[in-house]
């Protein structure tokens, strides 16, 4: 299997390299035939890598412990399902998995290459093939999953316990799909620059591809947060861990890109800026893969450290230098076709949005890498943890909510002040009402109150926009309101899908503020049959048992039984917090949850003595956490609506794409 | 995604054996003293803001590795002696350096963490504002586009939606 796998890898990277060269040659000479050759090579990568991945899967399923990788992530007794998912359970396998996903995107892009302008096709193929080839070379020479032992061991170590949870099985593929997905918009933008194109014929396509990547990346982040909440047992869902940050960074710049590309599409402005954003996103994707896979910044996620660091850094460096040089060379093509006309315009607000997103991205980047800098420069390691991120990015996120509440009422070019005053006035009133309600509900921290106010402001503005649209439709057509709403969205899925995403973000904000500011926790030791009272709950320790599940013989489960009553003595739930102790010495303490829309009761079994006669429990009360997951679902739905096929959009009336002005506007 | 039980993954084999031995004894630390003079909650309140040098990015209160359990016991002892939270934090800082803090204070090498974003973000905003001011030009048409009527018919409506987008 090792020989087959390595042979396939050799074939793939060899073809990839040839394809890259052919593609760029075809672009240079404008050779249609060679373009077609490159395109076909691009199409072949997917089946080739599917075979390679299958070779590794067969090795995993047949317990082929000659392969070093198999021993790292599998063992004979591992359940079938986990043997399959062990493909991305370790560094080398997950890089191959990355390459495979990349080849699928490459296939999709090449299969629909006819939608691209002909002169861009070879370059899109070339850039995608280059990325593909880089990862294949990495896989072949620095992180080879098919490497073998001279003398194979009898059994493997088994999959890392943390990765056996369904959330962790779904999280890496989704995140990687998001990462990989962003290579396509990058390729399209770079190809337009290389081909020296001035018009935005690729823009519609660009938006779709970006939304698809954004969808997966968002989903990956959400599933990752949920996994942390369900498995790690520290009471939260996001810890500003370097690896989380690495995944958040391209999401932040990608989101900024999604917004600025709208300005480019509608108004022909911000072209350099938009190109810069996608270059940055692509570089951060590569950097993110690098951080998650090499452990350059020591982190709980960095399971492995290996020799792939140097090639990664070189590649990121080359990408940045090459892309920026290209951007500089094509500067003239990217002159804005229009100028800003008013401060009160959508263009300005989108720029503000970009400033905030990039500000957050910079703050996160700085915090993530500062410990590395300080260690390199001053030989002292620092911890940059949640207090930094919360204080620096908190206000910026708050400002984004402010923008979200206003943007539905701000027009392209310029906005009549009267309509804005009315709508923003009503949003402000709603926000004040929400603050008053929160204060009555017992929330006292000023920042939490402000946060809820901002959420209400953003939520009301968005809902009002829906309501106005539905109202207008109903008056015009007499449709019942559900039909009017559905048709309204169908008429302009991008706008209303986008606002649905905003609503999702508002709900997530409510959940974050609630759980961030009002979390309560306690840790107490009680005897069998005794109870502890906390936050309006009475928890009775009923019993404890130990067993080894048939599917996982290497683990001992210690499970406590706790009955939960409310103040009046009504039985609310039976909770079973447990501890998993693996024979490798690792252990895991997943929580038992009672989730309601108001709050989550999050119960951990922290210890036990006297054969379970006394046990220590850690109890968290996390208000409003459920709204994060609900908001996540809304966000995904909104993205799906926005990405759905839709009628063509008209440019802004009044100023339809004039030819390049004689005296070009300065580039922003 | 902090893993509370995550140190185990980075432990060297030798440490592991030792860890297992200690784990067996200290794991139910809270349970060992039936009526502790200092409660777990008081210990955790201090531990929440501390990070041990081994378990990176995992706050002490959420960490049950032997080293962290030992630190927590130290905190308990210090609290029992009547030390204040800031005294205890300082005690750990002098012994292990600034890295035990959840975020460095804005002084010395920790200054850069805070200073760069604090200066950089407003500076970028200012630059953007100046850029915009220069970029703006008087509108070519003085009249803003007329408010579309919402009450006419569906076709008008669709145009309205598009104009607004």
Oligomer: heterodimer
Overall mean pLDDT of chain B stands at: 71
Strand content of chain A: 5-15%
- Reported by name, the CATH topology of the domain at 7-106 in chain B is Helicase, Ruva Protein, domain 3
The CATH class assignment of the domain at 7-106 in chain B is Mainly Alpha
Residues in helix, % of chain B = 40-55%
Global morphology of chain A: globular
Helix and strand composition category of chain B: mainly alpha
What is the string of helix and strand elements of chain A?
HHHHHHHHHHHHHHHHHHEEEEEEEEEEH
Number of strands of chain A: 10
N-to-C terminal Cα separation of chain B, in Å?
Answer: 38 Å
How far apart are the termini of chain A?
54 Å
> What Rg of chain B do the Cα atoms give?
29 Å
Subcellular location (chain A): Cell inner membrane
Family (chain A): Belongs to the CcmF/CycK/Ccl1/NrfE/CcsA family.
GO cellular component, one term (chain A): plasma membrane
Membrane topology (chain A): Multi-pass membrane protein
Short description:
Chain A is of the alpha+beta class and 668 residues long.
Task: Give your account of this protein's structure.
The complex is a heterodimer of chains A (668) and B (165). With 668 residues, chain A is α+β, with helices and mostly antiparallel strands. Chain A has 19 helices and 10 strands. Among the domains of chain A are: 334 residues, no CATH class; 104 residues. In chain A, the strands form 2 sheets. In chain A, strands 2, 3, 4, 5, 6 and 7 form a 6-stranded antiparallel β-sheet that branches. A 4-stranded antiparallel β-sheet of chain A has the order 1-10-9-8. The longest helix of chain A is centred in the middle third of the chain and has 33 residues. The C terminus of chain A is likely disordered. Chain B is 54% helix and 0% strand. Chain B has 165 residues and is mainly alpha-helical. Chain B has a domain of 100 residues: Cytochrome C biogenesis protein (Helicase, Ruva Protein, domain 3). The N terminus of chain B is likely disordered. Classes of the chains: A alpha+beta (668), B mainly alpha (165). Chains A and B meet through helix 9, helix 10, helix 13, helix 14 and helix 16 of A and helix 1, helix 2, helix 3, helix 6 and helix 7 of B. Chain B: One of its GO terms (cellular component) is plasma membrane.
């Amino acid at each position: 299997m090792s020989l087959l796998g390595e042979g396939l890898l050799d074939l793939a990277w060899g073809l990839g390299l040839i394809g890259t060269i052919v593609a760029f040659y075809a672009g240079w000479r404008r050779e249609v035939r060679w373009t077609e050759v490159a395109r076909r090579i691009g199409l072949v990568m997917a089946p080739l890598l599917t075979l390679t991945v299958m070779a590794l899967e067969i090795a995993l399923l047949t317990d082929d412990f000659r392969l070093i990788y198999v021993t790292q992530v599998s063992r004979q007794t591992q359940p079938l399902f986990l043997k399959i998912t062990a493909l991305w359970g370790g560094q080398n396998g997950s890089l191959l998995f990355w390459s495979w996903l990349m080849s699928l995107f490459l296939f999709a892009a090449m299969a629909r290459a006819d939608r691209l302008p002909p002169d861009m096709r070879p370059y899109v193929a070339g850039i995608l093939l280059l990325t593909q080839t880089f990862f294949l070379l990495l896989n072949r020479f620095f992180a080879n999953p098919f490497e073998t032992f001279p003398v194979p061991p009898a059994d493997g170590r088994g999959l890392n316990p943390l990765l056996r949870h369904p959330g962790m099985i779904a999280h890496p593929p989704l995140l990687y799909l998001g990462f990989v997905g962003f290579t396509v918009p990058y390729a399209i933008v770079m190809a337009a620059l290389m081909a020296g194109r001035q018009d935005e014929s690729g823009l519609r396509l660009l938006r779709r591809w970006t939304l698809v990547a954004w969808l997966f990346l968002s989903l990956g982040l959400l599933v990752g947060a949920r996994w942390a909440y369900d498995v790690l047992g520290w009471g939260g869902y996001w810890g500003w861990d370097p690896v989380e940050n690495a995944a958040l960074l391209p999401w932040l710049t990608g989101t900024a890109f999604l917004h600025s590309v709208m300005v480019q599409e509608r108004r022909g402005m911000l072209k350099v800026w938009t190109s810069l954003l996608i270059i940055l996103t692509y570089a951060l994707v590569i950097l993110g893969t690098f951080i998650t896979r090499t452990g350059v910044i020591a982190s709980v996620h960095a399971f492995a450290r290996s020799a792939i660091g140097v090639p990664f850094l070189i590649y990121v460096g080359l990408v940045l230098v090459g892309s920026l040089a290209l951007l500089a060379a094509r500067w003239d093509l990217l002159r804005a076709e229009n100028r800003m006309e008013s401060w009160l315009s959508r263009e300005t607000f989108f720029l503000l949005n970009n400033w905030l997103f990039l500000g957050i991205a910079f703050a996160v980047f700085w915090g993530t890498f500062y410990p590395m800098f300080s260690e390199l420069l001053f030989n002292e390691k620092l911890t940059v943890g949640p207090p930094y991120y919360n204080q620096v990015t908190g206000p910026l996120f708050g400002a984004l909510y402010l923008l979200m509440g206003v943007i539905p009422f701000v027009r392209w070019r310029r906005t009549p002040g009267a309509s804005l005053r009315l709508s923003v006035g009503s949003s402000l009133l709603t926000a004040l009402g929400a603050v008053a309600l929160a204060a009555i509900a017992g929330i006292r921290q000023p920042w939490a109150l402000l946060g809820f106010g901002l959420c209400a402001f953003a939520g009301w503005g968005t809902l009002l926009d829906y309501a106005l649209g539905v109202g207008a439709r109903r008056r015009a057509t007499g449709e019942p309101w559900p039909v009017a709403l559905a048709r309204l969205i169908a008429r302009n899925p991008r706008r209303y899908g986008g606002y649905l995403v905003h609503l999702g973000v508002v709900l997530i904000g409510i959940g974050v503020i609630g759980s961030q500011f009002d979390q309560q926790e306690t840790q107490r030791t009680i005897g069998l049959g005794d109870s502890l009272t906390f936050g309006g709950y009475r928890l009775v320790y009923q019993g404890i048992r130990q067993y080894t599940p048939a599917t996982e013989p290497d683990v001992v489960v210690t499970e406590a039984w706790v009955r939960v009553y409310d103040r009046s003595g009504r039985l609310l739930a039976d909770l079973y917090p447990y501890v998993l102790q693996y024979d490798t010495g690792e252990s895991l303490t997943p929580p038992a949850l009672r989730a309601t829309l108001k709050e989550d009761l999050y119960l951990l079994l922290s210890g036990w003595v006297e054969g379970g006669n006394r046990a220590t429990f850690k109890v968290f009360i996390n208000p409003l956490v459920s709204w994060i997951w609900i908001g996540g679902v809304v966000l995904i739905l909104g993205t799906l609506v926005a990405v759905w096929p839709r009628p063509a959009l008209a440019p802004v009336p009044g100023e339809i794409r004039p030819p390049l002005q004689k005296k070009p506007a300065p580039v922003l | 995604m902090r893993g509370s039980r995550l140190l185990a993954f980075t432990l060297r084999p030798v440490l592991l054996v030792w860890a297992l031995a200690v784990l067996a004894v200290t794991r139910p630390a809270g349970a060992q003293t039936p009526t502790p003079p200092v409660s777990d909650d008081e210990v955790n309140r201090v531990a929440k803001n501390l990070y041990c040098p081994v378990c990176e990015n995992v706050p002490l209160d959420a960490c049950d590795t032997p080293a962290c359990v030992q630190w927590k016991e130290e905190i308990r002892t210090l609290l029992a002696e009547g030390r204040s939270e800031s005294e205890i934090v300082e005690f750990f800082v002098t012994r292990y350096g600034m890295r035990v803090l959840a975020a460095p204070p804005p002084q010395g090498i920790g200054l850069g963490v805070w200073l760069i974003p604090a200066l950089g973000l407003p500076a970028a905003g200012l630059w953007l504002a100046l850029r915009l001011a220069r970029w703006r030009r008087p509108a070519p048409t003085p009249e803003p586009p007329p408010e579309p009527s919402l009450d006419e018919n569906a076709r008008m409506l669709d145009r309205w939606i598009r104009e607004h987008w």
